[in-house]
From TrEMBL:
It comes from the Bacteria. This is Phage protein D.
Length: 324
């Protein structure tokens, strides 16, 4: 039997504070979302004394969460306090990763021609030059307009139009931009008979999921350019993007096609804090009952929860990467 341990530290004005009590910690991470979040729930009162954290913790305070067993702790979340919410019985500290810093306005500009990397670098230069851009999926734009927008708005538009995986590594101060399902940051092994508590997975084969993806872009002269990928007669998906360069439309179409039609698992598995896993990991799945489904799958999202009731990781799987 393992003892569950945790550490939550806040840093404000150069002073570090450590929580002495919690009711629950919930961390939600996904490559499908621009932002990773952590919700730290505190009892409203301890020993009939109302907790007062407002003088030490506020919006923008740095936060680091570590979890583990038997005093062996691993950093699970690094970010900033976005809000503190009080209800009838508890306090909730709502936190975001480095995207929190990018919820500020940026200057209006028309960039032409440009690329996704140049647009992202412009945001970093304006908002926080201490962050480094890590990008291996560069889409060219004939024109990109930023008007009355925040850094968050711009990153959201880039993610929606290009289907890129865009996320922050707050600890390393990095903004990542990658093609979907290609960035692999680690490996993990799950056995349905050993370290999986519960499974809601449903296996989907590509042969049963016919999809046709059409990407349409309007160039600077007003002409509509398009590119089609997939199977004619399948479910038709039309994506309308900005003034993306015609030679990059296939990248976007094929990225969406992978999301929609590859061999994959839909659903999730529930496990524990061990093994450690993050989105972008490759998860090797073994199932003695259904060996034909064995393979390596892309980890799309992870929800980690710790409370008095115990701990749980819910791991959402995606496309099949290999059969081994």
């Amino acid at each position: 039997m393992f003892d569950i341990n945790w550490s939550v530290k806040f840093k404000n004005a150069g002073v570090t504070y450590r929580l002495e009590t919690i009711a629950a910690i919930d961390i939600d991470e996904s490559v499908d979302n621009l932002v990773d979040t952590a919700t730290i729930t505190l009892p409203e009162a301890v020993m009939n004394q109302v907790l007062n954290i407002g003088d030490r913790i506020g919006r923008g305070t740095e936060v680091a969460v570590q979890l583990g067993y038997d005093e062996v702790l691993i950093t699970e979340f690094v970010g900033y306090v976005k809000d503190i919410v009080t209800n009838d019985s508890s306090l909730k500290i709502l936190c975001e990763d480095a995207l929190f810093l990018f919820r500020v306005g940026v200057k209006d500009i028309e960039m032409k021609p440009t690329t996704m990397a140049k647009i992202a670098q412009s945001l970093l230069s304006q908002i926080n030059p201490g962050y480094k851009l890590v990008c291996d999926y560069d889409i060219a734009y004939e024109k990109f307009v930023i008007h009355q927008a925040t850094g968050f708005d711009v990153l959201k538009k880039l993610a929606e139009e290009t289907k890129a995986n865009i996320y922050f590594n707050t600890d390393k101060k990095e903004l990542h931009i990658h093609p979907p399902y290609l960035e692999k940051s680690g490996e993990v092994i799950y056995s349905m008979q050993v370290n999986v508590e519960k499974s809601s997975l449903e296996y989907k084969e590509a042969i049963d999921r016919k999809v046709e993806v059409i990407v349409e872009s309007t160039n600077v002269k007003g002409k509509v350019e398009s590119y089609t990928a997939g199977t004619t007669g399948g479910e038709k998906i039309t994506l309308k993007v900005g003034s993306v360069s015609p030679q990059d439309l296939p990248k976007i179409a094929n990225a969406e096609l992978i999301r929609r039609s590859a061999d994959m698992y839909e659903g999730s598995i529930d496990g524990w804090l061990i093994p450690f896993v993050k989105p972008t990991y490759s998860a090797k799945i073994k199932d003695e009952d259904y060996p034909e489904k064995d393979g390596t799958y892309y980890v799309v999202g992870v929800v980690t929860s710790v409370s008095e009731a115990g701990c749980k990781r819910t791991v959402k799987l995606g496309v099949k990467l290999s059969v081994k």
